[in-house]
Specification:
Layout: H1 3-30, E1 49-50, E2 58-59, E3 67-73, H2 78-94, E4 98-104, H3 111-121, E5 127-129, H4 134-138, E6 146-150, E7 156-161, H5 166-174
Parallel strand pairs: 3-4, 4-5
Antiparallel strand pairs: 1-2, 3-6, 6-7
Helix pairs in contact: 2-5
């Protein structure tokens, strides 16, 4: 093999590796179905109180007896915005059979800013504020959007990262209803 052929093979190999890395990164950013199950699944959901954008704080422990879907999001997050149509579909499909909340993780955004951002995204479900990052830490949210589905007993049953597929989320909810 000549030096020129080695260079061509090396560049080809590097291009292949780069393509694989890019594909994995994009898959993580935009969601992958069949991703490894989160270590949170099967654990009891943390007992936190999160302030809504208006009204009284929502205590997760007080939602026992209900199926709860939490959507961790931020105002600057493009994939979070892209996930809203799917989440609105889930919200319309299940209505009051589940408790569904956005959980805003913008630490510097006040309540009015959260309302504006959530409305600009077109969300049809209420949002809470994770002002100090307690929920983000407790639910081990490493990327957004992240969905967390909690069963009636307060146990985490599903964690999804990236833009969700409403049918996948619906299947997970159906298993709990």
């Amino acid at each position: 093999m000549t030096a020129k052929e080695r260079v061509v093979w090396t560049l080809g190999f590097l291009a292949l590796v780069g393509s694989i890395v890019a594909a994995i990164s994009l898959a993580r950013m935009f969601g992958v179905h069949g991703a490894p199950e989160s270590p949170l699944v099967g654990r009891e959901a943390p007992a936190l109180a999160l302030p809504p954008v208006e009204g009284e704080p929502v205590e997760l422990a007080s939602l026992r007896g209900h199926v709860v879907l939490l959507d961790f999001w931020a105002s600057w997050c493009g994939p979070c915005r892209m996930s809203i149509p799917a989440l609105n579909e889930v919200h319309a499909r299940y209505g009051d059979r589940i408790q569904m909340y956005g959980v805003n993780v913008d630490h510097g955004l006040d309540a009015a800013g959260v309302v504006r951002a959530h409305r600009s995204f077109g969300a049809t479900f209420p949002s809470l504020r994770d002002v100090r990052g307690e929920a983000q830490t407790a639910f081990e949210v490493q990327s957004i959007p992240t969905l967390v589905l909690i069963d009636r007993a307060g146990v985490i049953r599903y964690v999804g990262r990236g833009v969700p597929d409403p049918d996948d989320v619906g299947d997970a909810i159906d298993d709990l209803l």
